Amino acid sequence: MTSPTMKARPGPSAEPGPPAEPGPPDESRARTRRLVARTVVGVLLGLYGLVSVYPFLWMVSAAFKDQIEVVRGGHLIPDNPTFDTLVATWNKLHFFDFFLNSLLVTAYTVVLTLVIYAAAGYAFAVLRFPGRGALQKLFVSLLFVPGITVMLPIVLLENKLGILGTHFGLVLPFVNGGAPLSVLLMTGAFLAVPSELRDSARVDGASELRIFTGVYLPLARPALITVALLTAIPTWNEFLLTRVSLNDPSTYTLPLGLQYLSAENVPHYNNLMAGALIVVIPVILLFLSLQRYFVNGLVGAVKG
């Protein structure tokens, strides 16, 4: 038995060894790889953006040049910028006549699209009826049908109905063509609305129409604006079906009005670019003014 007065002999002291080698810097390497990947993606997207935006910049530049400077080429920035090209094109294009036709067709198309497919989206998202899932999948599958494949049947059908060559004959195909995406967006937006709100409204005695117009539509405003933009922009710029359908110059829309500028013996590219700029300015302003709602509508539809 060891005496308490005896001190324990200390064991051999451990000699300090060499410093431990640092482990592989996995985290640092991962950060470096992410930084390199983001840099490469950013550079590629920047180059793609420059290539995509260059034709638009050239169009804007040519709209403020005279014919000689456009043919001669040179820099994007005009040497002697002038508004004479825009003024001459404005007068030659009869802007207001074609503008009113385009506005009429676009407005009717947007209104009918919102009314019809907002109701359809509400039915698919909220109501329960036989064949709902199959019908919804059928609408979505139409996204994969090229529009050019149904152009001839549309023209033949409208000719038999006697509406070929009228604005109403344009509105119907435009509304029908926007069905798949509009139904998809509106269904997603309505699915994101809590079902408790509908239940509360039903307890208060609200009808189905009242619930739709007073509860769901206000909450789906970003999706409605998104559908309106996605309908208005292609309708405003549409050329092919409009060219096939309309024969009376008094019914021409703005894209068709541009053909007057290209029908000259010697094409004036500055006038063509000025006319194209006049056509696209309204839709650019519309998109910029509603961009925030557009993004929110897409995000809400995806979440739904």
Commentary on this structure:
It contains 16 helices and no strands. With 304 residues, it is an all-alpha fold. Helix 9 (195-203) packs antiparallel against helix 10. The relative contact order is 0.12.
Coarse structural class: mainly alpha
Find the count of extended strands (DSSP E, 2+ residues).
Answer: 0
Give the SSE order as H and E letters.
HHHHHHHHHHHHHHHH
User: Stretches where pLDDT falls below 50 for ≥5 residues?
Assistant: 1-8
| Helix content class | over 70%
Global shape: globular
Q: How would you state the average pLDDT, rounded?
A: 83
Largest sheet: none
Q: Provide the gyration radius in Å.
A: 32 Å
**Which band does the percent of strand residues land in?**
under 5%
**Number of helical elements:** 16
- Kindly report how far apart the N and C termini lie: 79 Å
Which secondary structure elements does this structure contain, and how are they paired or packed?
Blueprint: H1 26-62, H2 67-72, H3 84-93, H4 95-125, H5 132-141, H6 151-161, H7 167-177, H8 179-191, H9 195-203, H10 208-219, H11 221-237, H12 240-245, H13 254-257, H14 259-262, H15 269-289, H16 291-303
In a few lines, what is going on in this structure?
Helix content is 71%, strand content 0%. With 304 residues, the protein is mainly alpha-helical.
